[in-house]
Amino acid sequence: MGAQLYYEDVEIGQSIPAFVRETDFMNWNRYAAINDEFVYIHMDDEAGRAAGQGGAFGMGNLRWAYVLNALRSWIGDEAEIRELALQFRSINHKNDVLRAGGVVTEKRKENGENIVILDVNVLNQNDEKTAPGRAVILLPSRG
Amino acid sequence: MTEVDTLVTPEMEERKGVWGTETVSFPVSESDIRKWAIAVYWPETPPRLYWDGEYARTTRWGGIVAPEDFNPFAWPVPTGTFEPVGAVPGQQNQRGGNLLNGGQVDTFGARIRPGDVITSRTRLARWEERYGRNGLTLFTYIETEWRNQNGEFVKSRVATVIRY
Description:
The structure holds 2 protein chains of 2 kinds. Chain A is an alpha+beta fold. Chain A has a single domain (7-138), classed as Hotdog Thioesterase (Thiol Ester Dehydrase, Chain A), CATH 3.10.129. Chain A has helices at 25-35, 45-50, 60-75, and strands at residues 19-22, 80-87, 97-110, 113-123, 133-138. By secondary structure, chain B is of the alpha+beta class. Chain B is elongated, with a radius of gyration of 19 Å. The chains are: A alpha+beta, B alpha+beta. At the A-B interface, helix 1, helix 2, helix 3 and strand 2 of A face helix 2 and strand 2 of B.
């Protein structure tokens, strides 16, 4: 596990360490196997081309997992992820190098909870923002 | 490919806003969680919270929990009739036959643990049609709620499904 993050350690504008993966069938087939997600467009280049996407492409839900992994690695095991929202705007092509990460936009204490809000995204090797979104996390306090 | 005015079906109109039948998961196992974590962290070893019970007991969770994205409804039985989703190799695709995951908004509650049995209900909340880069495109918004065997809120999701 990573070190535990505390509310007092967080600054607005802070970037979180990226969760980086080069994706191909090694990642996608494992995800298909656990999520029972055997869809031709994720397995077969011909189906991907028939869908107008150039070839087989990755699951949005795997990028979703990568954002959660980036958040979890940054906040540590004692913190909570309360909300996550993503829009899958671009396709995850084979051999893309994805960087899931985020920037802190807000922090506040409310009803006894230490709330931190981030803009999150998954960038590819061309710095294309493939999955913009927002995360809400709850952190422990040093106080 | 024939031109169509709308991808909205009469069945969608009937189902709009109506909660479907509840679905109950099989009990979640430690092995389900471990395999899930391995797949989404591949090729890196996943965090111990997801597979090392001795470590997990020292955390606030008191034991192994599942990653937030864990799906206890994968691999149902009976398996039903197989109908491929989206484009199929060697077949002419119909307008509206292409499917993409447009994104989702999740709110998380109780963590999922080994032994949990999750109950899910889903409804078609609303939709909108627009012309996009793939022509006539239908965005449907599907709401899902999960609760565990103790009636605790586990997760809500509003998912966007794109058809073109």
